Amino acid sequence: MDERLIEVRDLDKAYRPKTFLRAKGEAKLANQGINLDIYQGEVLGLVGESGSGKSTLGRLLLGFESPTSGQIRYFPDQEGTQVDFKPQIVFQNNLAAMNPQLSVLDVVAEPLLRTQSRAEAREAAKDYLEQVGIPEDKWSHRPRSFSGGQLQRVNIARALADQPNFIVLDEPVSALDVSVQASIINLLMDLQEAHQLTYLFITHDLSIARVISDRIAVMKEGHLVEVQATEALFDNPQEAYTRDLLAAIPSLKV
Ligand SMILES: Nc1ncnc2c1ncn2[C@@H]1O[C@H](COP(=O)(O)OP(=O)(O)OP(=O)(O)O)[C@@H](O)[C@H]1O
Ligand SMILES: [Mg+2]
Question: What is the pTM of this model?
Answer without folding.
Answer: 0.93
